[in-house]
TrEMBL record, chain A:
Protein name: Energy-coupling factor transporter transmembrane protein EcfT
The keyword Transferase is annotated on this UniProt entry: no
Topology versus the membrane: Multi-pass membrane protein
PANTHER family assigned: SLL0384 PROTEIN
Subcellular location as annotated: Membrane
UniProtKB keywords: Cell membrane, Membrane, Transmembrane, Transmembrane helix
Main location class: membrane
Keyword Lyase assigned: no
Alphabetized InterPro entries for the sequence: ABC/ECF_trnsptr_transmembrane, ECF_transporter_component
Membrane-spanning ranges: 12-32, 38-56, 68-89, 95-123
UniProtKB/TrEMBL annotation, chain B:
Residues spanning the signal sequence: none
Occurrences of domain ABC transporter (ranges): 4-225
Family membership: Belongs to the ABC transporter superfamily.
Organism: Agromyces humatus
Annotated SUPFAM superfamilies: P-loop containing nucleoside triphosphate hydrolases
InterPro entries: AAA+_ATPase, ABC_transporter-like_ATP-bd, ABC_transporter-like_CS, ABC_transpr_CbiO/EcfA_su, ECF_ABC_transporter_ATP-bd, P-loop_NTPase
Keywords: ATP-binding, Nucleotide-binding, Transport
Keyword ATP-binding attributed: yes
SMART domains linked to this entry: AAA (SM00382)
Keyword Lipid biosynthesis found: no
Alphabetized GO MF terms: ATP binding
Protein name: ABC transporter ATP-binding protein
Length: 197, 226
């Protein structure tokens, strides 16, 4: 979800994240229950229509879906060998359609909206779960991915500059130390921004 | 302007004492704090919004003891860190600015309006939906400043806000801080940042060694580092 959001004002973009999550879950269950290839074709057409409504650039959509197709390029022939081509096509179609729907959700929903949706969904469990805190943990987890990637990149560059390419220790120690420092600084920033409980 | 009072403040990290009996009353509009690395200036600044608590003595803002009323004080004191990467919490620029207002009880429309206003003011409107981690260093510091100022604090504390920036971005941040109507405390090594400030405090080895107009205080600081 980092940097994948495609800004827009379409109906798909404007739909509440909770509704989109519910529809995504229902659609994936329905797709899993489909039994005939023509039913899958109808589902694929509906998903393509949703992408068109959302005006997601084809390249952005492809970046999400194509990696899964590589996996299916291996899995479908194996399934065909054991269960026949119809079963293989149905399996591949179900996976591709589900991934496409999940990608549509990711591409049209901001992280803050997903967090709000989590808070809403966890509201009935307020007595046992601090929904706001769960949302914050999710946000920080997502935020830490590029932060850690930057740390690893810089340490790898420093390791290369010092001629210690092969050393695992020269990678692990500074990455762990800097990650802990960053976590400490992020904690201070959260306190400074009012998240001090 | 707020009244920030340090009274007999002492602080140590383990065995190393970084502040020794600091007594200061800060009431000016623009205040600079300078000192060598490890002199205690950042610790002093962090005490203003309770990120660091004194071992002895008290720090208060408008009569509120920061150690006891941290949350109330932090609602009026914004803090800008040296490294904006540490301050950015949310994935996109607009979401990060909005994050500051998350617990303020504002309507979504109010939050959106205030975020749009802050992004416009800091020249980030075109980047609203962009991933925050892909901004340049200067833009990240602008974002950090926008995320602080969107909450409309009455006092802004900036801990070496230009240290990681090139000259052009450092000047931009300096001009923005200069133009703020809020009271501003800037901790810095870059002495040109303090031109036109009302007061400069020089910290050396945990003690105040000079305190006064920029000309006087920075003159003493220059002689210390010469």
């Amino acid at each position: 979800m980092i940097g994948l959001y495609v800004p827009g004002r379409s109906l798909v973009h404007r739909a509440p994240a909770v509704v989109k999550l519910g529809m995504l879950a229902a659609a994936v269950v329905t797709i899993t229950l489909l039994r005939e290839p023509w039913q899958l074709a109808v589902a694929a057409a509906a998903i393509a229509a949703l992408f068109a409504v959302a005006r997601v650039p084809p390249r952005a959509a492809a970046r999400q879906i194509v990696p899964v197709l590589w996996l299916l390029a291996v899995a479908v022939p194996v399934q065909a060998f054991f269960g026949g081509w119809t079963a293989a096509v149905m399996m591949g179609g179900r996976v591709a359609a589900s991934v496409a729907l999940a990608a549509l959700f990711t591409l049209t929903t901001q992280v803050s909206a997903v967090l709000d949706a989590c808070v809403t969904l966890l509201a009935p469990f307020r007595r046992w779960v601090d929904a706001d805190r769960v949302g914050l943990v999710l946000a920080l987890t997502i935020r830490c991915v590029p932060l850690t990637a930057d740390i690893v990149r810089e340490v790898l560059e420093a390791r290369r500059a010092r001629g210690a390419q092969g050393s695992i220790m020269a990678l692990a120690v500074p990455v762990i130390v800097r990650s802990l420092q960053s976590a400490d600084e992020l904690g201070d920033a959260l306190i400074a921004r009012g998240f001090d409980d | 302007m707020s009244v920030i009072e340090f009274s007999g403040v002492t602080h140590a990290y383990g065995e190393r004492e970084v502040l020794r009996g600091i007594d200061l009353v800060l009431t000016e509009h623009r205040i600079g704090i300078v000192g060598a690395n490890g002199s205690g200036k950042s610790t002093l600044a962090r005490m203003v919004n309770g990120l660091v608590k004194p071992d002895r003595g008290t720090v208060s803002v408008d009569g509120l003891d920061v150690a006891r009323n941290g949350r109330e004080v932090r609602r009026q004191v914004g803090f800008v860190f040296t490294n904006p990467d540490s301050q950015i919490v949310m994935p996109t620029v607009a979401e990060d600015v909005a994050f500051t207002l998350r617990r303020r009880g504002l309507s979504k429309a109010d939050v959106a309006a205030r975020v749009a206003d802050a992004l416009e003011r800091f020249g980030l409107a075109a980047h609203a939906d962009h991933p925050a981690h892909r901004l340049s260093g200067g833009q990240k510091q602008l974002l950090a400043l926008a995320a602080v100022l969107v909450a409309e604090p009455s006092l802004v504390v900036a801990d070496e806000p230009t240290t990681l920036l090139d000259a052009r971005n450092a000047r931009r941040i300096s001009e923005l801080l200069d133009a703020l109507p809020q009271q501003v405390i800037v901790v810095t090594h870059q002495l040109e940042l303090l031109e036109g400030f009302d007061r400069v405090v020089v910290i050396e080895a945990g003690e105040v060694v000079a305190d006064g107009s920029p000309d006087t205080a920075l003159g003493i600081y220059r002689s210390l580092i010469a």
